[in-house]
Design brief:
5-stranded parallel beta sheet; 56% helix; 11% strand; globular
Length: 236
């Protein structure tokens, strides 16, 4: 079977490629009992498990670094710099990533919020306006309500960037996609490597935005750090 045929087959299943298909097949074949990590078996020693988890995370970040040239960083930075507000969206484990991103980006002086459950996501999209920028994080890209909400936000002329696989339903519904899809079966395992990839990608986007904003961003970051330092000194 040719490589293009395999890729087309994977995409008809809503998968990003052969690596994700392989992860699903391995998970189904092994039917894991611990549901801890796809590379760790219950017979592994603590040291072996530690090495496997770290190696998996490192490999994921290296793979991510090789794909960033095709990601819409420049376009995202320009829209974020002029945004009326930035809304970080994530359900389940991705909500933790969305919350972390909001905690970083608001210090640049742009209004930020999070939508971390289905009712909030749907309502936020229903009242979206031009100038709103949504950054949606999802490893699977298959939440129906999330896809519906982002389509609604798009109809309201908001910009929607998705951090997910390009060929997932969410990836197809978004305005632009950061094609970030770690080979990790989150239907069987708690998100680990994929979460690190999403966090690193958002960190890079925040730094790129700060560089674009220039002195104003640097001033705000300095003031934010200064007030925390002053609080620490008072408490001591």
């Amino acid at each position: 079977m040719s490589e293009p045929t395999v890729i087309r087959f994977c995409r008809t299943l809503g998968l990003n490629g052969f690596r994700e298909l392989r992860s699903h097949l391995l998970a189904a074949a092994h039917n894991p009992e611990s549901y801890l990590h796809q590379n760790v078996s219950r017979d592994d020693s603590t040291r072996t498990a530690l090495a496997k988890v770290l190696e998996s995370s490192i490999r994921t970040l290296i793979d991510l670094a090789r794909t960033t040239d095709d990601m819409p960083f420049e376009e995202a930075v320009h829209l974020l710099a002029e945004a009326r507000q930035i809304i970080f969206v994530g359900l389940g484990a991705s909500g933790c990533v969305a919350r972390d991103a909001c905690h970083k980006f608001f210090r640049l002086g742009i209004p930020c919020s999070t939508a971390l459950d289905v009712p909030t996501v749907l309502q936020s999209a229903a009242i979206a306006e031009p100038g709103d920028v949504y950054i949606v994080i999802s490893q699977t890209g298959r939440w129906p309500e999330l896809i519906e909400a982002m389509q609604t936000a798009g109809k309201n002329q908001a910009s929607v960037f998705a951090i997910t696989g390009r060929h997932t339903p969410l990836g197809r519904a978004a305005y632009r996609v950061f094609d970030c899809h770690a080979a990790e079966d989150t239907s069987a395992f708690t998100p680990m490597s994929s979460r690190l990839a999403h966090l690193a990608l958002l960190d890079a986007l925040q730094v790129a935005l700060a560089l674009h904003l220039g002195e104003s961003a640097e001033t705000r970051l300095r003031l934010a750090k200064q007030v925390l330092t002053e609080v620490t000194i008072r408490e001591e």
